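ASSEMBLY PREDICTION REQUEST
Request ID: AP-0331
Submitted by: J.K., bench scientist
Number of chains: two
Total residues: 571
Priority: normal
Notes: Please return the full assembly, not individual chains.
Input sequences:
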Amino acid sequence: MNFELDAVVIEENCRASALASRVVGGIPPSVQVSYVSDGRPAARSPANTRDPFGAGKRRMVVMRRRSPFLMGCPASSTQFACCGYLVLVLASNCPMDCSYCFLQEHLANNPGFQVFANYHDAFEELDRLASGSSGRAFRVGTGELADSLAFDSLTGISRDLVSYFSEHENLLLELKTKTDEIDNLLALEPRGRTLVSWSLSPMRVFATCEHRTAPPHARINAARRVLEAGYKVGFHLDPLIAYSDAEQDYLDLLDNVFDAVPPQAITFFSIGGLRMTPGLRTTARRRFPDDAMLLGEEVLGEDGRYRTFTPLRLRLFSKLRERIVKACSALPVYLCMETASVHHRVFGASPLTPAALGSRLAGR
Amino acid sequence: MNSVEVERQLLRWADAKALPAMYVEKWLVLDESSRTRLLEIAENLRMRTGQFITSFILLEEVAVRESQSIGEILARPRLRRVLNSAGSGPGRARALLDELRTLRYPRLRRASARLAEEVAAITAPPGIKIILPRDLASDEVRVEIVAHGSAELEELLAWLKAKSGEFVRLAAMLGGADSGLEFEDARTLAEPQAERANESARCAFQK
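STATUS: Completed
Returned structure:
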């Protein structure tokens, strides 16, 4: 995919890193490169810019991460039935620009597209996780605060990651993406320890909301190709947006997936309704005032987020679950950021604990 | 009124109602028909500032959802009927807001009406109150029992037991079952058939 950068800022102490060399060697000559002692100010929201978040996406900051790389999923909460997902923060922000993206609020003060040159330090954290787990398996993803594969042709991080995870039986790497940037992956041997997942939306959501992403058919095609190359694949129907023809469009989308990828070969589907805090909703509508998908029938829920009103949301969840189960009854499906009671209504059973579900998804 | 007069009158109304500058600016940049029709409702319905702002926001949102201008939306027969109806200005303003909410949240309105009918059909005795979640924002059905003494409580509990099937059905409807949200009907919620055909309102949310 062809993402554009205005500038690359590199921390002096990362100048000699392999990542900085790959980036400097891979960007077009027109992109300005500068070196600074501390990359953090460059990642902050610039003054006098009408759209600081959008501007941040075009400014790559290669820097050292000062905090731990590994953390619990920021979406997890005791009020939801969660999936036990762990997040490895190797980058922050993303060159694509989805109108509903939570990063618009989450990274409002820090919108620079940060890529962490010391990412090899993350392997020590993962070693500790893997060795201290007494047989438990973990699913660890890099696609929460960034897209896992956007700019991978430039950074090449996936090569080191896939190689590391291929040697750890109880760790599963999840590379979550809306791109079709899989060339690096196809040259690697994942040994069953890397799963590539795609967030999928119908064509109308893609065309309206998902700016600079790969179209749905390209994502599905990429999924088929990585599956053939030995990777596991999963899909996230998230955020599910309840526009008036959504039900049929999402069912058609599922049919398109099952036409290209055998359902038995899919590791999981996750489903999550569009949810927005009031702050995110305001920001998103300000940045995308003509996006009708941001003006659906959402109401303020008990958790302080706007979601599609309950009967409609649950109806859509149930319809999609039915179609997935019809395609393959053993294919795991879970809901993201929904309560146990909603889970029970949709699946007719109580959810597993996050640890149990996480381990199951990682081990399948 | 020509556009200069509309603008002058609009500014006079905004000033008298202390309309925040942000809304005045938004109003001024609308196309002429939208600007004029908005002034018409503000004046004719003697809207309060809050009512005007709410109407304006709802109209802006419906305009984006349905790819129409505010002027076109306000020209719809069902809204004209409210504007031209008898009654006090504030009463008609409330009715207009109600219509705008129905346009903005068509399926929510229909599901709420369907559930309210279901609750009414249960015909609960005075000691029992069935409470649905506000804006159907959760899947919780609350049943409140107010009883004075054990005999009354026993009677109400027996009534509840006898009606358990209807309560279960209500709970299922909150979960999306048979709540009037069937796919093929989803686009017909905002307008009666004939009216929609006349207006040829093309909803951006439709294929």
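REVIEWER COMMENTS: The first strand of chain A starts at residue 7 and ends at 11.
SIGN-OFF: pending second reviewer
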